[in-house]
Amino acid sequence: MNISPPAAAGQPGPAANGGRAGSAARRGRALAVAAGLLGVAGLAPVALPGTAHAQGTCTVSGPTTTCTFAFTGTEQTFTVPNGVTHVDVTAIGAAGGLEGGNNTPGGRGAQVSGTLTGLSGGQTLYVEVGGKATNDGSCYALSQCTGGFNGGGSTYFGGGGGGASDIRTQPRTTPLTTTDSRRIVAAGGGGAGLVATIGCAAGPGGDAGQAGTDGGCSGGTGGGAGTATQGGAGGQQFGSPGTLGTGGTGGGPGISLTGGGGGAGYYGGGGGGNINVEVSPIGNAAGGGGGSSLVPAGGTGPTVTSAAAGITIRYPTPGKPVNTRLFAIPQQVRVGRPVVLDDLVCPAGTGATTPPTGTVTFTDTTTGTTLGTARLVLNIGDCAAAGRVVFFRTTGAHVITAVYSGDSVYQGNSGNPESITVTVKS
């Protein structure tokens, strides 16, 4: 095998190589030695991850890959593929729970869309698909009716709040703050209040971004809607306010909680007010308020929808994968002596019609310095190679990485770069 790096590869980066430039003759001899050694070196290709590792369902259609995530009741993850720096997201929050005795409806969730930028290959995004509170009017006999997964407010006799659907850069075990890692949030709807007196109007939950409805016959007041800066106010008769990411609890102390739970969101909606027993006929409980959404810059929404909660991620289908192999010749060297770094990039699998192009950047991660960038040149078959000659002034182990940039056909390996250790002695 004859690796022939470009002429520029013999010129180390200005400050990154930790040493002085050798003469042109020295660089030429070093490259020649490297070529001879690589000619007998056994290549064990290193496979690079090229597709998203998602817990959702991913399909490829032409230049676009689409991953869909449905409700599971647990946190899901999505790993950004190599070469992908942005993804387009559509998120739908969950509806609030109905009040089962009279089928009083909960509020609808929100739909938002936007582009998440500044991503890098190998990065993990945490996907939270909101759950709908499925109260049927009898859960009070067992325990408090919890709200939908991912922040839906609870109640006892009414409907729980719907959970929000969001994508974040930190797992849900990380507490939420006003500068938290959520990048997009589709709010959930508020839950319905309990109907205690037939013939009086019910208290439906508020849609995402809207307040809950008051209970009939001078019943409790609806929970307020969450906003971009604060949770919705709790309805009169003991409804609790929404908080960051969580809807408020339906009104009433103890087991008399009868107002609808607030919907989850960036800020949650307030819980609906309790039954008012001081009027005749007794007033019904109020619905919880819907939560607020977070829309990325340039995104669309929120709009109210009856669609099921879920998250869809779309991104440009990455190029073909490559195998790379990084060499350092020699791997043990004295201070001030030349070391040839050479990265071989080959198509992985079948179907390749052209050799990889682009550049390789070499970095000494031990000192945090860039050793230089070299352009790939045709090497053998469909493979290409890029090289640098570098010098080290400090002793010890230097961990060197090589990152292939990728091109219009092949994907880069920034999420899983090759590395090798060079030991420098005095």
TrEMBL record:
Protein name per Swiss-Prot or TrEMBL: receptor protein-tyrosine kinase
Alphabetical UniProt keywords: ATP-binding, Cell membrane, Disulfide bond, Glycoprotein, Kinase, Membrane, Nucleotide-binding, Receptor, Signal, Transferase, Transmembrane, Transmembrane helix, Tyrosine-protein kinase
Chief place where the protein resides: membrane
Record-linked Gene3D superfamilies: Immunoglobulins (2.60.40.10)
EC code(s) of this entry: 2.7.10.1
Location(s) in or outside the cell: Cell membrane
Record-annotated Bacterial Ig-like domain positions: 330-423
Source organism (scientific name): Kitasatospora cathayae
Top-level taxon in the UniProt lineage: Bacteria
Membrane topology per record: Single-pass type I membrane protein
ALK/LTK-like glycine-rich domain sequence ranges: 89-295
Region named Disordered: 1-22, 228-256
Pfam families from the UniProt entry: ALK_LTK_GRD, Big_3_5
Xref: InterPro entries: ALK/LTK-like_GRD, Big_3_5, Ig-like_fold
